[in-house]
Design brief:
Layout (H helix, E strand, L loop, with lengths): L9 E8 L6 H9 L17 E7 L2 E7 L10 H15 L3 E7 L5 H7 L8 E6 L10 H9 L6 E4 L8 H11 L17 H17 L8 E10 L2 E10 L2 H8 L4 H18 L3 E9 L7 H6 L4
Parallel strand pairs: 1-3, 1-4, 4-5, 5-6, 8-9
Antiparallel strand pairs: 2-3, 7-8
Helix pairs in contact: 6-8
């Protein structure tokens, strides 16, 4: 790795935090230029710490996408998600606090209250392209900036890649001088097996939507690679037989759509052909406690 280290190389971890559905995963994917964190309109889509890596000249940005901080329903899953958020914050070099342009409520304030005072934090106002009257952005930004000692304020549009270079410039200012932790071509520290499960889960939520409880998940039962071909055998785990029918759809049409779109995303991310088989299984009681959550990959 030493062949790309400059005398003043900067490297550090950047936590991306905010309430659910403000665009944290979309922002990280846009920043690194690859889809390693799944996105969905459904809350609680991100359940893990997802690391995205970008190395640019003399800087390695290590982004950590966190679950949206949960303020309702104190069940085992939400407690685990919130613990993931707080643990990520205290181990980061820089924090990106994401809010949606023109929107700020009690849930946003609860996330602000978690931000350590001794870690540089950048206020990122996402979805700024949706604000028709740009004159209202400045007073809105000033109002939110007064709630914490932010190191910088940057309005962006993750979807349109607006202001992302400016945002990275601000992040770089606060990263420590360190040697790179990952290789120059690495984009994530997650395995392909993990990414495959996340891609299938994203498609489940996209095609089934609000009909399916957020506790449904995906287990990769077998992941094989022969040359450039990957064979993936996945199980979608649901709580009830009625949920199984929702996922499969009439004459299997919905499951076919899920499988096709998941396979296409995997082929794009992995850079090669993918053979994908998916089953839907009922697994009662698996998410009733923290031990069960850990067994299915929650951190």
């Amino acid at each position: 790795m030493t062949d790309f280290i400059s005398p003043a190389f900067r490297c550090g971890y950047i936590a991306i935090i905010g309430r659910p559905n403000v665009g944290k995963s979309t922002l990280m994917n846009a920043l690194i230029g690859a889809k390693v964190s799944i996105t969905s309109r459904k809350a609680q889509t991100t359940r893990h710490r997802i690391t995205g890596i970008e190395t640019v000249e003399d800087t390695q940005f290590i982004y950590v996408d966190t679950p949206g901080f949960q303020t309702r329903h104190a069940n085992a899953l939400n407690k685990t998600l919130n613990k993931t958020v707080t643990n990520t914050l205290i181990s980061s070099d820089v924090i990106l606090y994401i809010i949606e342009a023109g929107t700020f409520g009690p849930a946003d304030q609860q996330v602000i209250d978690l931000i350590p005072s001794d870690i540089p934090c950048i206020l990122v106002i996402n979805k700024s392209d949706r604000v028709k009257d740009k004159a209202v952005l400045l007073p809105f930004a000033q109002q939110i900036a007064a709630k914490h000692n932010f190191s910088a304020v940057v309005p962006v549009s993750a979807k349109l890649r607006f202001q992302l270079e400016n945002l990275q410039g601000e992040i770089k200012r606060f990263l420590p001088e360190n040697q790179p932790i990952f290789g120059p071509d690495d984009i994530t520290d997650r395995s392909e097996k993990f990414l495959a499960a996340e891609i299938v889960r994203e498609k489940v939520f996209r095609f089934v939507g609000d009909e399916l409880p957020y506790t449904s998940t995906v287990l990769i039962e077998k992941f094989e690679q022969e040359g450039n071909l990957r064979r993936v055998f996945a199980a979608i785990l649901v709580e009830r037989a009625t949920h199984k029918s929702m996922v499969i759809g009439q004459k299997g049409a919905r499951l076919k759509d899920i499988s096709t779109q998941a396979r296409l995303d995997m082929e794009k991310l992995f850079g090669g052909p993918v053979y994908l088989e998916i089953w839907v299984k009922v697994k009662s009681g698996w998410a009733d406690n923290e031990a069960g959550l850990r067994a299915y990959g929650y951190e």
